[in-house]
Each structure stands twice: as C-alpha cells, then as structure tokens.
Specification:
Length: about 375
C-alpha cells in the first residue's frame, strides 16, 4: 500500500454515527424551555453510573474540571501540587491559575505514568494534592499512591482525560481519586468536540463545584443573588447530547481502541527496538494513543521521525516534552530540581512518538504505518 495523493493518516479523531447526529439534532430542536437541561442531566447520570461514582458534573473542558477541583480544596499561594513531568500542560496549568506551585515528578519507565517513589521523594510540608495522570490510557500504581496520600494527608485528583474505560483492579479510571476529571476534546476516545466532566463520591465537593461553576450561586437559591465571585463553566446541551450518544456506544469505542493497539502489536512484534504501551496485570489499558519508544541506538529523535513519517502521509505526535523543560516553567526552582531528578522522563521523551490512533483507522492503514516505520528505522 502507498499513501501518495491520499489524505494524511490521522493521529486522532472520533467515531461518529447517526445516533450522535440524531441526539444533537433533537437537542437543537427540543432542549429549550423546561427541557433546557435534559441532555446534561441524562449525560451526567449515565456517566456517573458508568464510572461507578455518585456524582458527575458536565463542564466545558477537563482544564476547568481541574481548576474547580483545586478551588474546592482551597489550594492556593504557598501550596504545592505534585504532577507527573510527562503529561499535557492542562494537568498543571490550573495549579498556576490558583497561585499554587506545580511540583514535577518522574514517571515509571514501564507504565510512563507518575512514579510513587518519585512522589514520596518530593513531598514537603506545603504539599496539598497529587494529580496522577492516566497517561495514554494507562493507570499508575494507585495502591502505592493511596498509601502516600494517606500518610501525608494529601488529596488525589485523578486526571483520567486520556483513559475513559480503563480499569485498575476492576475499578474504572476516574473513580480512583477523591475527584476524577475527564476531557471530551475532539481527539479523546469519547468526544463532545470540547467538553469535560468532574466526578466524585464526595457530596460536599459536588455541591461546591455546582456553585463555583455557575457564578457563585447554588441551584435553587434566591435568584440573581450571587454570594461569591466565581466562574462560568457549563457544558451546552448540544455537547451533552453528543456526549450521551457517545457514552451509549462506549464499549464499542473502547473495543476499537484496544483493537487498533492489537494491530500495532501484531505488526511490530518481531521488530527489535520499539517498545509500545504497557499493560500491567492490575490494569485494563484503553490505549488512547498508541505510543512507540524507539531505541536510542537507531540514532533518530522523535522530531526527525515525525518529519519522515509525514513525508509518507502519516501523522504522528511527539511523546510529551517534560513540563519542566517548557518555557513557562523553565525558570521555576521546581523545574530546575525536576530537570536534575527526573531521569526517566528525560531519557524516554526524546525517543517517543504517538502513532495514528484515530477511531476510524483500518487494519490496512496500521500495516502501512508499521511497514513505513520499520523501513525508516532500518534505513538508518
Ligand atoms: C486532553 C487532556 C487534558 C485537557 O483536556 P481539555 O478538555 O482540553 O481541557 C488534561 N489532561 C490530560 C492528560 C489530557 O490529555
């Protein structure tokens, strides 16, 4: 197979059926007046049930969900929040919104998720929370993280943006912390275009989040009587309708992600020098992004490889750069420490790429990607 003259093989993208189109059309026609909120309510109820938690709040993004979680715990100036050095910046940016300090810690070489040993080494008197990230659909060693959190009295905000449907010891991603957060950005496994969800079993958190996301008023309170300056973080009913339709198809979406990964695994199984996403015995990984770490002995960096794949019509993405290496954080003392200590993050990141993982991929396209990747590496 050649890919000349065709569209790029996409890195990520959704699987939309007539069901989604019908639900959104129905919301556009009918989700007004006394029904303005019905799709949000149905989506939230179904989502909480799927994750196995009491409460879910639909939001405009995962970033806003993390922001609200930090506000609920009154985290602010002088406080420290531990995050993995390897993640999307959205995990850490809200820590700056509230004036607290992000502490970037190392990842585990196998799971690529936050390393419990690295967390413990960086806890101080000022540490208030840990935000473990379910990176690329994997889940970190949560038992070890609970143990640290309980010994130092820290809250856990689980960033499950990339891991809807993943499981740890039979429990769903997002239900593993005090608060869990999800993203429904267009690249994510379940999408509403843009959107997010906050989930929790903590009734006080649920109530406070409802208040904070609607300009400081609780549902049912005296009208136009705001009691605090807060935020406007709501999801539209059109997005909620799309999300509900996607959620009703979640088993199918997750199964396709796992199928795509199995195709890559099959195609690359006899090729030495490429490591793919790991799935430990306690975890069901939903492989949001199929990710390859290329042995440094090939002498090819991720940027070069991305460029060469693009020449063959294949879209790919770099493994996240350590946050501590990015311009906004570069000069923080915490980032200097991170650059010294986070050996695994700095060893792996230059040689990792995300391969096409869009939900519309075919077996033939995956074979073409793998054949091209092998050809490029063997010609080095
Ligand atoms: C996508 C993503 C987010 C942010 O989601 P938004 O909905 O774009 O705010 C946060 N954390 C991780 C790990 C992500 O991959």
């Amino acid at each position: 197979m050649e890919n000349k003259g065709r569209k790029m093989i996409p890195i990520a993208g959704p699987w939309i059926t007539q069901k989604e189109v019908d639900y959104v059309a129905d919301a556009a026609a009918n989700a007004w007046y006394e029904n303005a909120n019905i799709y949000n309510e149905r989506f939230e109820r179904a989502f909480a049930k799927y994750i196995g938690v009491k409460y879910a709040v639909s939001l405009p993004s995962c970033t806003s969900a993390i922001h609200l979680a930090l506000l609920y715990y009154k985290i602010g100036p002088g406080d420290e929040v531990i995050v993995p050095d390897i993640t999307w910046i959205a995990t850490a940016a809200p820590i700056s919104y509230v004036g607290a300090t992000p502490v970037f810690v190392d990842i585990d070489p196998k799971t690529w998720c936050i390393s419990p040993e690295s967390i413990e080494a960086r806890v101080t008197r000022r540490t208030k929370a840990i935000i473990p990230v379910d990176l690329y659909g994997n889940i970190p060693d949560m038992d070890a993280i609970y143990d640290i959190a309980s010994r130092y009295n820290l809250v856990i905000i689980e960033d499950a943006a990339e891991a809807i449907g993943s499981e740890y010891k039979g429990r769903k991603a997002g239900s593993l912390g005090d608060i869990g957060v999800f993203s429904f950005h267009g690249t994510k496994t379940l999408t509403t275009g843009e959107g997010g969800m906050l989930v929790t079993n903590d009734e006080n958190a649920y109530k406070r989040v409802l208040f904070l996301r609607d300009h400081g008023r609780a549902p049912g309170e005296k009208m136009f009587w705001n009691t605090e300056v807060a935020y406007k973080y709501k999801m539209s009913s059109l997005q909620a309708a799309l999300g509900l339709a996607q959620l009703e198809r979640i088993e199918e979406l997750v199964a396709k992600k796992r199928l795509i990964f199995s195709w890559y695994k099959e195609e690359l199984k006899d090729f030495e020098g490429i490591s793919l996403n790991y799935e430990g015995s306690d975890v069901k990984n939903t492989y949001w992004m199929v990710t390859a770490i290329i042995d440094p002995s090939f002498g090819i960096t991720k940027e070069k490889l991305i460029y060469l794949l693009r020449e063959h019509g294949i879209d790919s993405r770099p493994f996240f750069y350590p946050l501590s290496s990015l311009p906004p954080y570069e000069h923080l003392d915490q980032a200097k420490v991170a650059r010294e200590l986070n050996k695994v993050s700095y060893q792996i990141s230059p040689y990792g790429i995300n391969l096409p993982s869009a939900l519309n991929l075919t077996r033939e396209q995956v074979k073409f990607v793998c054949d091209t990747l092998k050809k490029i590496l063997l010609s080095k």
